[in-house]
Amino acid sequence: MHAHGTSASIQPAALPGAPVPPRSDWGTLTRLFPYLWTYKWRVMAALAFMIGAKLANVGVPVLLKNLVDAMSFKPGDPNAIIVVPVALLVGYGALRLCTSLFAELRELVFAKATEGAARSISLEVFRHLHAMSLRFHLERQTGGMTRDIERGTRGVHSLISYSLYSIIPTIIEVALVLTLLAVKFDAWFAWITIAALVVYITFTITVTEWRTQFRKKMNEMDSTAHGRAIDSLLNYETVKYFNNEDFEAKRYDENLERYRRAAVKSQTTLSLLNTGQQLIIVICLVAMLWRATTGVAEGRMTLGDLVMVNAFMLQLYIPLNFLGVIYREIKQSLTDLEKMFTLMEREREISDEPGAQPLQLAANGADATLRFENVTFAYDPARVILHNISFEIPAGKTVAVVGPSGSGKSTLARLLYRFYDVQQGRITIAGQDIKQVTQASVRQAIGIVPQDTVLFNDTVEYNIAYGRPGAGREEVEAAASAAHIHGFIASAPKGYDTMVGERGLKLSGGEKQRVAIARTLLKNPPVLIFDEATSALDSANERAIQAELQGVSQNKTTLV
């Protein structure tokens, strides 16, 4: 394609959309909090039920101690009468029931908040990805990115679940137990417990932090392997054309092997963590029971007190036994969430200007004159694609742009759609700079039949109706008839309900192109772009479609 004017230089500049610097774990938590606080009454109710469950749980060993003491008597005592303390038994059962009941009520109340937060975040990241520039989507790897989004959404559930159902309840229970031990017995019980907790938590966090590198490596290898698999399957025909099944399998297996090595290291270090935790727990339990049995022997404590101390320790260390797993999962959830939030906060390369208004066009598009004014553009500063281009397409007229491959013909369509912004010059529709009006209104005014048509994995009707969602079957059939594809669709066993397959691979190139033409005809915009729209058609259909396109482009501003 030939340019008017002189060549212009493009100065390198930092492109928007660069990765956001990683945030701290606390920063990730504060980023998540607003999504949860939308359901603040449910959050508060869940916390209330959680406290109730822990109070009931701590009360169980106390009642058990009283029950044992009430049943204690000296063997051989002729005056001993075994009396079953019915009230204590009923109370014991009631507390057990309350512990489970409050826990279930907490989960029931909080489920809507958890799912609501996950839904809001997923929708926000979905919208944000659609708002990112074409440059971003051409450079990213679909499989790896979708894996990051999946893990981030799952991380919302895991983080909330482990925090609300494990960490916070354990902290409350530890505080209650320490208070009871210090008040009812001597301070040594509390100090032994505190010392064990400090050593246990320090050991767990230290080892888990060390193990995190292996977990991160596992995730990286998982995303890479997943991306390789998706890329290979999407290019199924290319793999077959070049007989490269073994080559693809080898590449995939290499990633799986790296994942396996990282997973084995992760499991080995997990065994080390679990062994160390058990050693700390056993030492603490022995020390506590030694102190309690000494107290019983000296008459300072009852047998019920010994049972209560043992029950408290078991209640504390059962959840603490999973602290390593919980901490690891929380850290992993925070890492996954941080990745997703970072993706959500990547700056958009193309954004509407503040206060931008919709593009104003006459109802019949009679004023839709299209102008490129001294436009210079480069995907990469080192290689300028368009040099000071200027041309005009009067409203309702057709202009054809010709040139060799790579000369920038398709780039004109991308710039017109504002997939990219020009570095110099401007593009106007009806005298309005497209950078100063909303992107949605510009794209609503344009219809395109692209050179490479990609369809959704849905029905033929869905893909044609995508040009104007909500269109009726009669309108869809009329558009299909205009694109000379109605006969083919009607002859299929399922007609318009025929599935087109992944990216439309069940259809031939010509059939996909005619569906794309029908979709654009249904949209009926004032500006049309035909980017080599008949390139995939046979000669007979090409002539028919070209004649039809000439008809539908009457009174429309058309770029070919």
The percent range for strand residues is: 5-15%
State the strand order across the main sheet: 2-1-4-5
CATH class of the largest domain: Mainly Alpha
Name given to the CATH homologous superfamily of the largest domain: ABC transporter type 1, transmembrane domain
| Overall shape | elongated
For the report, how would you describe the main beta sheet?
A: 4 strands, antiparallel
Rg on CA atoms, Å? 34 Å
Q: Could you give the distance between the termini?
A: 13 Å
In the residues, how many domains can be counted? Answer: 2
SSE order in H/E notation?
A: HHHHHHHHHHEEEHEEHEHHHHEHE
The number of helical segments is: 17
SSE blueprint and pairings:
Blueprint: H1 25-37, H2 40-71, H3 86-131, H4 134-139, H5 142-184, H6 187-234, H7 236-241, H8 245-297, H9 303-320, H10 323-344, E1 370-377, E2 386-393, E3 398-399, H11 409-416, E4 424-429, E5 432-433, H12 439-444, E6 446-449, H13 460-465, H14 473-482, H15 486-491, H16 509-523, E7 527-530, H17 539-552, E8 557-559
Parallel strand pairs: 3-8, 6-7, 7-8
Antiparallel strand pairs: 1-2, 1-4, 4-5
What does this structure look like?
The protein has helices at residues 25-37, 40-71, 86-131, 134-139, 142-184, 187-234, 236-241, 245-297, 303-320, 323-344, 409-416, 439-444, 460-465, 473-482, 486-491, 509-523, 539-552, and strands at 370-377, 386-393, 398-399, 424-429, 432-433, 446-449, 527-530, 557-559. The relative contact order is 0.10. The chain is α/β, with parallel strands linked by helices and 560 residues long. The model is unreliable at 1-17 (pLDDT under 50). The longest helix has 53 residues, at 245-297. The protein has 17 helices and eight strands. Helix 14 crosses helix 16 (509-523). The chain has two domains: 25-344, Up-down Bundle (ABC transporter transmembrane region fold), CATH 1.20.1560; 370-559, P-loop containing nucleotide triphosphate hydrolases (Rossmann fold), CATH 3.40.50.300. The strands form two sheets. Strands 2-1-4-5 form a four-stranded antiparallel sheet, covered by helices on one side.
